[in-house]
Amino acid sequence: MRSIWNGAISFGLVSIPIKLVNATENHTISFRQIHTEDGGRIRYRKVCELEDREVTQGEIGKGYEDADGSIVPITDEDLAHLPLPTARTIDIVAFVPADRIDPLQMEHAYYLAASGAPAAKPYTLLREALKRSRRVAIAKFALRGRERLGMLRVVDDVIAMHGLLWPDEIRAPQGVAPETDVTVRDQELDLADALMDTLGEVDLADLHDEYREALEEVIAAKASGEAPPEAPGPAPGGKVLDLMAALENSVRAARRSRGEEEGEAQAAGGGAQEAGTSAEAEVRHLPRRKAARSAPKRTASGKGAAKKTASSAKKTASASASGAGSARKSTSKSAQSKKTASAGKATAKKTPAKKAAARKRTA
Predict the structure, then answer these.
(1) Can you give the pTM of this predicted structure?
(2) φ, ψ for residue 358 (rounded to 5)?
(3) How far apart are CA 266 and CA 3, in angstroms?
(4) Which end of the chain is more exposed for a tag (fewer CB within 10 A), N or C?
Protein backbone atom coordinates (compact mmCIF):
# COMPACT_ATOMS: atom_id res chain seq x y z
CA MET A 1 0.00 0.00 0.00
CA ARG A 2 1.29 3.42 -0.94
CA SER A 3 1.12 6.15 1.69
CA ILE A 4 -0.67 9.35 0.74
CA TRP A 5 0.36 11.48 3.73
CA ASN A 6 3.18 11.45 6.28
CA GLY A 7 2.95 12.98 9.72
CA ALA A 8 2.57 12.08 13.37
CA ILE A 9 -0.11 11.34 15.95
CA SER A 10 -0.02 13.76 18.86
CA PHE A 11 -1.10 11.81 21.96
CA GLY A 12 -0.52 14.22 24.84
CA LEU A 13 3.27 14.53 25.03
CA VAL A 14 3.70 11.36 22.93
CA SER A 15 4.40 11.77 19.23
CA ILE A 16 3.94 8.74 16.97
CA PRO A 17 5.33 9.02 13.41
CA ILE A 18 2.82 7.46 11.02
CA LYS A 19 1.97 7.05 7.36
CA LEU A 20 -1.56 7.44 6.05
CA VAL A 21 -2.79 4.66 3.75
CA ASN A 22 -6.17 4.36 2.04
CA ALA A 23 -8.24 1.64 3.73
CA THR A 24 -10.79 1.40 0.90
CA GLU A 25 -10.66 1.14 -2.86
CA ASN A 26 -13.11 1.93 -5.62
CA HIS A 27 -14.06 -0.91 -7.96
CA THR A 28 -16.41 1.17 -10.10
CA ILE A 29 -15.95 0.59 -13.83
CA SER A 30 -15.15 3.90 -15.54
CA PHE A 31 -15.83 4.86 -19.15
CA ARG A 32 -14.09 7.14 -21.66
CA GLN A 33 -15.84 9.63 -23.84
CA ILE A 34 -15.57 8.74 -27.52
CA HIS A 35 -16.71 10.10 -30.86
CA THR A 36 -19.65 7.84 -31.81
CA GLU A 37 -18.96 8.06 -35.55
CA ASP A 38 -15.38 6.80 -35.56
CA GLY A 39 -14.65 5.76 -31.95
CA GLY A 40 -12.01 8.44 -31.43
CA ARG A 41 -11.20 9.53 -27.86
CA ILE A 42 -12.63 12.81 -26.61
CA ARG A 43 -10.14 14.58 -24.34
CA TYR A 44 -10.28 17.72 -22.27
CA ARG A 45 -7.48 20.16 -22.95
CA LYS A 46 -6.33 22.76 -20.44
CA VAL A 47 -6.24 26.07 -22.26
CA CYS A 48 -5.23 29.48 -20.90
CA GLU A 49 -8.05 31.93 -21.57
CA LEU A 50 -5.66 34.90 -21.92
CA GLU A 51 -3.17 33.32 -24.32
CA ASP A 52 -5.63 30.93 -25.97
CA ARG A 53 -3.18 28.05 -25.93
CA GLU A 54 -2.90 24.66 -24.25
CA VAL A 55 -0.68 24.60 -21.15
CA THR A 56 1.21 21.77 -19.46
CA GLN A 57 0.62 20.47 -15.93
CA GLY A 58 3.79 22.17 -14.70
CA GLU A 59 2.37 25.56 -15.65
CA ILE A 60 -0.82 25.10 -13.65
CA GLY A 61 -1.15 26.45 -10.10
CA LYS A 62 -3.93 27.24 -7.60
CA GLY A 63 -5.96 30.40 -7.26
CA TYR A 64 -8.96 31.59 -5.24
CA GLU A 65 -11.72 33.37 -7.09
CA ASP A 66 -12.96 36.37 -5.13
CA ALA A 67 -16.54 37.60 -5.10
CA ASP A 68 -15.77 40.22 -7.75
CA GLY A 69 -14.26 37.60 -10.08
CA SER A 70 -10.63 38.44 -9.43
CA ILE A 71 -8.18 35.56 -8.84
CA VAL A 72 -5.89 35.44 -5.79
CA PRO A 73 -2.89 33.13 -6.52
CA ILE A 74 -2.10 30.58 -3.77
CA THR A 75 1.19 28.69 -3.96
CA ASP A 76 2.27 25.41 -2.37
CA GLU A 77 4.62 27.42 -0.13
CA ASP A 78 1.67 29.44 1.14
CA LEU A 79 -0.13 26.22 2.04
CA ALA A 80 2.96 24.75 3.72
CA HIS A 81 3.11 27.74 6.13
CA LEU A 82 -0.49 27.66 7.24
CA PRO A 83 -0.78 28.69 10.90
CA LEU A 84 -2.23 25.31 11.88
CA PRO A 85 -0.89 22.83 14.45
CA THR A 86 -2.52 20.03 12.42
CA ALA A 87 -0.63 20.70 9.18
CA ARG A 88 1.45 17.53 9.71
CA THR A 89 -0.10 16.20 12.91
CA ILE A 90 -3.13 14.15 13.81
CA ASP A 91 -3.94 15.92 17.06
CA ILE A 92 -6.05 13.78 19.43
CA VAL A 93 -8.40 16.04 21.38
CA ALA A 94 -10.70 13.59 23.23
CA PHE A 95 -11.70 9.96 23.83
CA VAL A 96 -15.41 9.10 23.64
CA PRO A 97 -17.61 5.96 23.41
CA ALA A 98 -18.03 4.75 19.85
CA ASP A 99 -21.83 5.08 19.96
CA ARG A 100 -21.42 8.84 20.39
CA ILE A 101 -20.40 9.09 16.72
CA ASP A 102 -23.27 9.47 14.27
CA PRO A 103 -22.68 7.27 11.18
CA LEU A 104 -23.86 10.22 9.08
CA GLN A 105 -20.57 11.94 9.91
CA MET A 106 -18.30 9.17 8.59
CA GLU A 107 -16.40 9.73 5.35
CA HIS A 108 -13.30 8.01 3.97
CA ALA A 109 -11.37 5.40 5.98
CA TYR A 110 -7.59 5.20 6.34
CA TYR A 111 -5.06 2.90 7.98
CA LEU A 112 -2.39 4.49 10.15
CA ALA A 113 0.92 2.66 9.72
CA ALA A 114 3.80 3.11 12.15
CA SER A 115 6.64 4.94 10.38
CA GLY A 116 9.83 3.11 11.30
CA ALA A 117 10.98 1.00 14.25
CA PRO A 118 11.00 3.87 16.82
CA ALA A 119 7.26 4.37 16.26
CA ALA A 120 6.38 0.73 17.05
CA LYS A 121 6.29 1.10 20.86
CA PRO A 122 4.13 4.27 21.12
CA TYR A 123 1.92 2.98 18.27
CA THR A 124 1.28 -0.27 20.17
CA LEU A 125 0.69 1.67 23.38
CA LEU A 126 -2.05 3.78 21.79
CA ARG A 127 -3.61 0.74 20.11
CA GLU A 128 -3.80 -1.28 23.33
CA ALA A 129 -5.11 1.73 25.27
CA LEU A 130 -7.94 2.12 22.75
CA LYS A 131 -8.72 -1.59 23.01
CA ARG A 132 -8.84 -1.64 26.79
CA SER A 133 -10.87 1.54 27.14
CA ARG A 134 -13.37 0.48 24.44
CA ARG A 135 -13.43 4.05 23.27
CA VAL A 136 -12.46 5.89 20.11
CA ALA A 137 -10.18 8.91 19.77
CA ILE A 138 -11.41 12.16 18.23
CA ALA A 139 -8.67 14.05 16.39
CA LYS A 140 -8.05 16.97 14.07
CA PHE A 141 -5.82 16.75 11.00
CA ALA A 142 -5.16 18.67 7.79
CA LEU A 143 -5.35 16.84 4.46
CA ARG A 144 -5.73 18.02 0.86
CA GLY A 145 -6.04 21.69 1.61
CA ARG A 146 -8.43 21.65 4.57
CA GLU A 147 -8.58 20.77 8.24
CA ARG A 148 -10.67 17.73 8.97
CA LEU A 149 -12.14 15.82 11.88
CA GLY A 150 -11.22 12.18 12.41
CA MET A 151 -12.07 9.18 14.55
CA LEU A 152 -9.37 6.66 15.49
CA ARG A 153 -10.33 3.08 16.33
CA VAL A 154 -8.67 -0.35 16.32
CA VAL A 155 -9.22 -2.81 13.44
CA ASP A 156 -7.48 -6.14 14.13
CA ASP A 157 -3.95 -4.99 15.07
CA VAL A 158 -4.04 -1.71 13.18
CA ILE A 159 -5.20 1.79 14.10
CA ALA A 160 -7.73 2.99 11.54
CA MET A 161 -8.97 6.55 11.09
CA HIS A 162 -12.34 7.57 9.70
CA GLY A 163 -12.67 11.04 8.31
CA LEU A 164 -15.64 12.80 9.89
CA LEU A 165 -17.77 15.65 8.65
CA TRP A 166 -17.93 18.67 10.89
CA PRO A 167 -21.20 18.84 12.85
CA ASP A 168 -22.34 21.91 10.89
CA GLU A 169 -21.96 19.92 7.65
CA ILE A 170 -24.78 17.52 8.65
CA ARG A 171 -28.09 18.82 7.41
CA ALA A 172 -31.10 18.67 9.72
CA PRO A 173 -33.79 16.26 8.41
CA GLN A 174 -36.49 18.92 8.35
CA GLY A 175 -39.38 18.28 5.98
CA VAL A 176 -38.19 14.75 5.18
CA ALA A 177 -40.48 12.66 7.40
CA PRO A 178 -44.11 12.09 6.28
CA GLU A 179 -46.27 15.01 7.29
CA THR A 180 -49.53 13.08 7.32
CA ASP A 181 -50.72 11.27 10.43
CA VAL A 182 -50.43 7.50 9.96
CA THR A 183 -51.68 4.78 12.31
CA VAL A 184 -49.86 1.45 12.20
CA ARG A 185 -51.84 -1.50 13.52
CA ASP A 186 -50.42 -4.29 15.66
CA GLN A 187 -51.22 -6.86 12.96
CA GLU A 188 -49.08 -4.92 10.47
CA LEU A 189 -46.22 -4.71 12.94
CA ASP A 190 -46.51 -8.46 13.61
CA LEU A 191 -46.29 -9.21 9.89
CA ALA A 192 -43.35 -6.86 9.50
CA ASP A 193 -41.63 -8.61 12.41
CA ALA A 194 -42.32 -12.00 10.82
CA LEU A 195 -40.84 -10.78 7.53
CA MET A 196 -37.69 -9.55 9.30
CA ASP A 197 -37.33 -12.88 11.11
CA THR A 198 -37.78 -14.79 7.85
CA LEU A 199 -35.16 -12.73 6.02
CA GLY A 200 -32.86 -13.26 9.00
CA GLU A 201 -29.26 -12.04 9.11
CA VAL A 202 -26.53 -12.00 6.48
CA ASP A 203 -22.77 -12.19 6.44
CA LEU A 204 -21.63 -8.94 4.80
CA ALA A 205 -18.66 -10.79 3.30
CA ASP A 206 -21.14 -12.75 1.12
CA LEU A 207 -22.49 -9.58 -0.51
CA HIS A 208 -20.96 -8.36 -3.76
CA ASP A 209 -21.56 -5.85 -6.54
CA GLU A 210 -23.83 -7.68 -9.01
CA TYR A 211 -24.13 -4.60 -11.22
CA ARG A 212 -20.38 -4.50 -11.79
CA GLU A 213 -20.32 -8.24 -12.57
CA ALA A 214 -23.13 -7.85 -15.11
CA LEU A 215 -21.34 -4.87 -16.65
CA GLU A 216 -18.12 -6.91 -16.96
CA GLU A 217 -20.09 -9.65 -18.78
CA VAL A 218 -21.43 -7.08 -21.25
CA ILE A 219 -17.94 -5.65 -21.87
CA ALA A 220 -16.44 -9.13 -22.35
CA ALA A 221 -19.21 -10.12 -24.78
CA LYS A 222 -18.81 -6.96 -26.86
CA ALA A 223 -15.02 -7.29 -26.87
CA SER A 224 -15.28 -10.83 -28.25
CA GLY A 225 -17.91 -9.88 -30.83
CA GLU A 226 -20.70 -11.80 -29.14
CA ALA A 227 -24.18 -10.61 -28.34
CA PRO A 228 -24.49 -9.19 -24.82
CA PRO A 229 -26.53 -11.26 -22.34
CA GLU A 230 -30.22 -10.52 -22.19
CA ALA A 231 -31.64 -8.78 -19.17
CA PRO A 232 -34.10 -10.82 -17.07
CA GLY A 233 -37.73 -9.85 -17.31
CA PRO A 234 -39.38 -7.80 -14.59
CA ALA A 235 -40.71 -9.69 -11.60
CA PRO A 236 -44.48 -10.19 -11.75
CA GLY A 237 -46.54 -8.13 -9.38
CA GLY A 238 -49.52 -5.88 -9.07
CA LYS A 239 -50.14 -2.43 -7.77
CA VAL A 240 -49.74 -2.12 -4.02
CA LEU A 241 -53.20 -1.40 -2.67
CA ASP A 242 -53.08 -2.99 0.75
CA LEU A 243 -50.17 -3.06 3.19
CA MET A 244 -51.32 -6.23 4.97
CA ALA A 245 -51.52 -8.17 1.70
CA ALA A 246 -48.10 -6.91 0.65
CA LEU A 247 -46.56 -8.00 3.94
CA GLU A 248 -48.20 -11.43 3.85
CA ASN A 249 -47.07 -12.05 0.26
CA SER A 250 -43.59 -10.84 1.15
CA VAL A 251 -43.38 -13.39 3.98
CA ARG A 252 -44.54 -16.14 1.62
CA ALA A 253 -42.03 -15.13 -1.05
CA ALA A 254 -39.19 -15.01 1.49
CA ARG A 255 -40.05 -18.48 2.79
CA ARG A 256 -40.35 -19.94 -0.71
CA SER A 257 -36.97 -18.49 -1.68
CA ARG A 258 -35.41 -20.32 1.27
CA GLY A 259 -37.24 -23.61 0.66
CA GLU A 260 -39.41 -23.28 3.76
CA GLU A 261 -43.00 -24.38 4.16
CA GLU A 262 -45.88 -21.95 3.82
CA GLY A 263 -47.85 -23.50 6.67
CA GLU A 264 -47.72 -20.39 8.83
CA ALA A 265 -47.90 -17.70 6.17
CA GLN A 266 -50.69 -15.94 8.04
CA ALA A 267 -49.49 -16.54 11.60
CA ALA A 268 -48.66 -12.92 12.39
CA GLY A 269 -51.88 -11.06 12.75
CA GLY A 270 -54.74 -12.86 11.09
CA GLY A 271 -54.03 -11.93 7.47
CA ALA A 272 -55.56 -9.56 5.02
CA GLN A 273 -58.90 -11.39 4.99
CA GLU A 274 -59.43 -10.66 8.70
CA ALA A 275 -58.59 -7.03 7.97
CA GLY A 276 -61.42 -7.03 5.44
CA THR A 277 -59.27 -6.61 2.33
CA SER A 278 -58.25 -8.88 -0.50
CA ALA A 279 -56.33 -6.43 -2.68
CA GLU A 280 -53.52 -7.61 -4.91
CA ALA A 281 -50.10 -6.52 -3.66
CA GLU A 282 -46.78 -6.17 -5.39
CA VAL A 283 -44.10 -8.55 -4.11
CA ARG A 284 -40.44 -8.43 -5.08
CA HIS A 285 -39.13 -11.98 -5.56
CA LEU A 286 -36.23 -12.43 -3.18
CA PRO A 287 -33.00 -14.17 -4.27
CA ARG A 288 -32.31 -17.59 -2.78
CA ARG A 289 -29.54 -17.44 -0.21
CA LYS A 290 -26.88 -20.10 0.20
CA ALA A 291 -27.79 -20.95 3.78
CA ALA A 292 -31.35 -21.29 4.98
CA ARG A 293 -32.33 -18.63 7.45
CA SER A 294 -34.07 -19.23 10.72
CA ALA A 295 -37.85 -19.43 10.65
CA PRO A 296 -39.95 -16.75 12.37
CA LYS A 297 -40.29 -16.81 16.09
CA ARG A 298 -43.94 -17.77 15.82
CA THR A 299 -43.07 -21.21 14.46
CA ALA A 300 -42.05 -22.15 18.00
CA SER A 301 -45.75 -22.31 18.89
CA GLY A 302 -46.22 -24.87 16.13
CA LYS A 303 -43.46 -27.02 17.65
CA GLY A 304 -45.11 -26.77 21.08
CA ALA A 305 -48.44 -27.83 19.62
CA ALA A 306 -46.76 -30.79 17.94
CA LYS A 307 -45.16 -31.82 21.24
CA LYS A 308 -48.53 -31.55 23.03
CA THR A 309 -50.21 -33.67 20.32
CA ALA A 310 -47.47 -36.31 20.60
CA SER A 311 -47.79 -36.46 24.41
CA SER A 312 -51.61 -36.73 24.21
CA ALA A 313 -51.24 -39.52 21.65
CA LYS A 314 -48.93 -41.37 24.03
CA LYS A 315 -51.44 -40.96 26.87
CA THR A 316 -54.26 -42.28 24.65
CA ALA A 317 -52.17 -45.27 23.63
CA SER A 318 -51.30 -46.08 27.24
CA ALA A 319 -54.97 -45.76 28.23
CA SER A 320 -55.96 -48.11 25.44
CA ALA A 321 -53.33 -50.62 26.56
CA SER A 322 -54.52 -50.49 30.19
CA GLY A 323 -58.13 -50.93 29.02
CA ALA A 324 -57.17 -53.98 27.03
CA GLY A 325 -55.35 -55.43 30.07
CA SER A 326 -58.40 -54.90 32.26
CA ALA A 327 -60.61 -56.64 29.70
CA ARG A 328 -58.29 -59.62 29.60
CA LYS A 329 -58.30 -59.85 33.42
CA SER A 330 -62.11 -59.73 33.60
CA THR A 331 -62.38 -62.40 30.92
CA SER A 332 -60.06 -64.73 32.84
CA LYS A 333 -62.02 -64.15 36.06
CA SER A 334 -65.32 -65.05 34.38
CA ALA A 335 -63.77 -68.23 32.97
CA GLN A 336 -62.59 -69.26 36.43
CA SER A 337 -66.05 -68.61 37.91
CA LYS A 338 -67.60 -70.79 35.21
CA LYS A 339 -65.21 -73.65 36.08
CA THR A 340 -66.03 -73.31 39.80
CA ALA A 341 -69.75 -73.42 39.07
CA SER A 342 -69.46 -76.55 36.93
CA ALA A 343 -67.34 -78.24 39.59
CA GLY A 344 -69.99 -77.42 42.23
CA LYS A 345 -72.70 -78.88 40.09
CA ALA A 346 -70.74 -82.10 39.64
CA THR A 347 -70.19 -82.34 43.40
CA ALA A 348 -73.89 -81.79 44.00
CA LYS A 349 -74.75 -84.64 41.58
CA LYS A 350 -72.30 -87.10 43.19
CA THR A 351 -73.38 -86.48 46.83
CA PRO A 352 -76.95 -88.10 46.68
CA ALA A 353 -75.55 -91.23 44.99
CA LYS A 354 -73.00 -91.70 47.74
CA LYS A 355 -75.69 -91.28 50.40
CA ALA A 356 -77.88 -94.02 48.78
CA ALA A 357 -74.99 -96.46 48.63
CA ALA A 358 -74.25 -95.85 52.29
CA ARG A 359 -77.87 -96.61 53.21
CA LYS A 360 -77.76 -99.94 51.33
CA ARG A 361 -74.62 -101.04 53.13
CA THR A 362 -76.17 -100.16 56.49
CA ALA A 363 -79.28 -102.17 55.71
Answers:
(1) 0.59
(2) -65, -40
(3) 57
(4) C
